[in-house]
From TrEMBL:
Function: This protein is one of the early assembly proteins of the 50S ribosomal subunit, although it is not seen to bind rRNA by itself. It is important during the early stages of 50S assembly.
Residue ranges of coiled coil: none
Family: Belongs to the universal ribosomal protein uL13 family.
Gene Ontology annotations for the cellular component aspect, listed alphabetically: cytosolic large ribosomal subunit
Matching PANTHER family: LARGE RIBOSOMAL SUBUNIT PROTEIN UL13, RIBOSOMAL PROTEIN L13
Superkingdom as given in the UniProt entry: Archaea
GO biological process: negative regulation of translation; translation
Protein name per Swiss-Prot or TrEMBL: Large ribosomal subunit protein uL13
Record keywords: Ribonucleoprotein, Ribosomal protein
Subunit structure comment from the entry: Part of the 50S ribosomal subunit.
Membrane-traversing stretches: none
Pfam family, one: Ribosomal_L13
UniProt GO molecular function: mRNA binding; structural constituent of ribosome
């Protein structure tokens, strides 16, 4: 199943993708940099910046936990938090997820599956995942 993430809300999209993964389907998400986070840009940046900085807060020499900066990896990490990743079923389901920035050549012209529950309804403030990723220092 191929999903175009352009203009879809991060949490709702990740929730529906995780349900499909646990049902045994393989899911490919395109345009990860255009997925929307609802809320102000300052709030979203502060939330993800705090996660990225966690490694140096506890112990500067101990370089973990690692939190992603690229938009495709941020989406993968969000989906991973919604499945039982530490169990065998969750780990096998997570292997069925592929996320891309932009649209690769092998997926051009392919039909995408709509996700109506992830469409924005009444959002006043929002920011794209690609913008947050650039603020975190990603060079995607």
């Amino acid at each position: 199943m191929i999903i175009d993430g352009e203009g879809l809300i991060l949490g709702r999209l990740a929730s529906s993708v995780s349900q499909k993964l646990l049902a045994g389907e393989s899911v490919t998400v395109l345009n990860a940099e255009k997925i929307i986070i609802s809320g102000s840009k300052d709030w979203a940046y502060a939330r993800y910046k705090q996660r990225v900085d966690r490694a140096s807060i506890s112990n500067p020499r101990d370089m973990g936990p690692k939190y992603p900066r690229r938009p495709d990896d941020i989406f993968r990490r969000t989906v991973r938090g919604m499945i039982p990743y530490r169990k065998t079923t969750g780990r096998e389901a997570f292997k069925g997820l592929k996320v891309y920035v932009g649209i690769p050549k092998e997926f051009e012209g392919e039909e995408t599956y709509p996700v109506p529950e992830a469409q924005p309804k009444h959002i006043i403030k929002s920011v794209e995942l690609g913008k947050i990723s650039q603020l975190l220092g990603s060079k995607f």
